[in-house]
Amino acid sequence: MKQKMQAIQANGYPIVFGENGYEFLNTFIEDNKYSNIFILSDTHSNECCLSRFLPFLATDKTIEIIEIESGEIEKNITTCVEIWSILTELGGDRKSVLINIGGGVITDIGGFVASTFKRGIDFIHIPTTLLAMVDASVGGKNGVDLGTLKNQIGVINVPKLVLVDTEYLATLPRNEMRSGLAEMLKHGLIFDANYWAEFRTLESADFADFDTLIYRSIEIKNEIVMQDPTENGIRKALNFGHTLGHAIESYFLENENKKTLLHGEAIAVGMILECYISWQKKLISAAEYIEIKQTINAIFTTIVFEENDLSPIMNLLIHDKKNEYGKIQFALLDGIGNSKINQEVENELIVKSFADYKS
Ligand SMILES: NC(=O)c1ccc[n+]([C@@H]2O[C@H](COP(=O)([O-])OP(=O)(O)OC[C@H]3O[C@@H](n4cnc5c(N)ncnc54)[C@H](O)[C@@H]3O)[C@@H](O)[C@H]2O)c1
């Protein structure tokens, strides 16, 4: 990272940064006397990131690299079985450590595989996408999709260490950068109005000096998780934009006629829709709604919804993990920089939010 970033203490593990982070990692591995070191990566993180990562790793232990195909479609239980089998064949035992180096797919699936292999081995996250740095690697949620239903199977279990090195972003495609940006915008909207304001003036194409913004985003995510690690209260605010966003993501994933959306692209639409709902419920003003919609639309391409898309998307809402006693619960905005959780929303209002988005 261009600036030296202080390590952040999360709930039970540190988040370390940049080149100093690798020193910390090596000492950590040494101190823990692991039997084997396994590295989980996918096609792109293997190709783009391991050549930077491996020279930093100073250890005399055997290192085994496990590679899976890239993409959300791989985040399923079949891939887990393959990884568990490889770990077994390669002599993985309870003193092994799994280093997950990749985007949110790798940190989610790697965290889950490690949490369940031999009833749990240590794991470390090295996020290599913007989205994984500011969101997926922090907070201990990990798991896989069930068919096209997002994140239905999983556990909350924290890594031993997260190492954020923004040099990995040099090879990340711009649409993937944008995808991560959606979660950063969300952090501002739900928690820090000043942070949100920084994005209003940010040129959509300017990712030049991003480290400070990334650091603040990690701080916000961590602060929320620290207050409520098991998502009984305030952590639900992080689901702002995700109730509709996940349903849209799942629908586009399962529908052959639709282009698969990146996670952040779906969340960007979800945030606009849920801002509309917040406005209609008088939780934000019309001016705030317009400001948010314009800022997000300046960065993300508008998604086209056909008339017959709405009903299947609404049906997918019944699988949302925040639902309690069969009721769909939204996390909405309560002014910019604040949120209101456990909000029930009438179907008509959801329909109206899509109509407004299309207009
Ligand atoms: N656990 C959580 O709290 C949490 C939070 C948010 C999102 N998620 C999950 O994260 C996933 C999305 O993560 P993502 O956006 O990182 O997607 P991803 O992991 O699929 O990565 C996106 C693409 O970038 C490639 N890639 C990774 N690093 C690269 C690099 N440095 N250079 C070039 N290419 C690189 C990957 O191979 C992949 O093709 C979703 O499954 C989502 O559900 C989890």
Shape descriptor reads: globular
Please provide the count of β strands: 11
Order of helices and strands: EEHEHEHEHEHEEEHHHHHHHEEH
Mean pLDDT: 94
Q: What amount of the residues lies in strands?
A: 15-25%
Discrete helix count:
13
The helix-and-strand class reads alpha/beta
Main sheet: strands, sense, barrel: 7 strands, mixed
| Hetero groups | nicotinamide-adenine-dinucleotide
First-residue to last-residue Cα separation: 41 Å
With strands numbered from the N-terminus, the spatial order across the biggest sheet is 1-2-9-6-5-3-4
Share of residues in helices: 40-55%
Low-pLDDT runs:
none
Output the radius of gyration: 20 Å
Describe this structure in words.
This protein has helices at 18-32, 43-56, 77-89, 104-116, 130-136, 174-191, 193-200, 211-227, 242-254, 263-280, 286-299, 310-316, 347-358, and strands at residues 8-9, 14-17, 37-42, 63-68, 97-102, 122-127, 141-146, 149-156, 161-164, 330-333, 339-343. With 359 residues, the protein is of the alpha/beta class. Strands 1-2-9-6-5-3-4 form a seven-stranded mixed sheet, sandwiched between helices. A two-stranded antiparallel sheet has the order 7-8. Strand 1 and strand 2 form a beta hairpin. Helix 6 packs antiparallel against helix 7. The longest helix has 18 residues, at 174-191. The termini are far apart. The mean pLDDT is 94. The site of nicotinamide-adenine-dinucleotide (NAD) has 32 residues, from helix 2, helix 4, helix 5, strand 7 and strand 8.
Quick summary:
The protein is of the alpha/beta class and 359 residues long.
